[in-house]
Amino acid sequence: MYRLKLRETRGKTITDCINSAHTFSFAQYFDPFNMGFSDLRVINDDILTPCGEFSKRKQSNMEIVDFILEGEMEYKDSLGNTEILSKGDIQTITTGSGITYSERNFSLDNHLHFLQLWVLPNKKNLEPSYGKKNFSKEKMMNELCLVISGEGKHHSLKINQDMKIYKSILQVDKTINYQMPENRKFWIQVLKGAIEINSNILEAGDGVSIVNESGTMEITGVDFESMFLLIDLRNLSI
Asked: What CATH architecture is 10-134?
């Protein structure tokens, strides 16, 4: 079963400096029937103006993944990490037993656009940790590039959960096939452009959940150059 989550149906948080779209219930957006998908708890599409920031806050027992789409982010945490992340960078945060961190737009002129995922970990109170990586465009071009995995396979960033996240850049009329294992769930999130899956056209900001399916999934590029995430998750109800 394929179920679309179109960008215009997402919740919103809008201030003078922040424009956030929430795929699942988050902050003041609450839908008791839309609390997450398997271990995936949050998909936030965040745009920060040059004055925008998520100020210092404490989080525990959550795996956080940021995909920088445009601009530059300044990240700081209580572990002593200070990073300037740019377009294409991916960072992972194991909040574990507790970590304090902040994120802000590093630029005085340009917007910062990033996608943030929150994932429930496989264990509570892990030791907090941080990771960062940038995967080349060549590895993602018309291919599924494994960027996050529970085992850190193929030089992917490690996450403390049984899941895989692939990132791909798909040119128009190019098709990628993914063999869906049985007894798994899948989520696809479009970051840029447009793709076709199961006869549905998905554009930037759209997502689709896939349950009770196996066999070959076909994803075709519709726009000149499209970017998306494919997330392979446990068959878990939330």
From this structure: Sandwich (2.60)
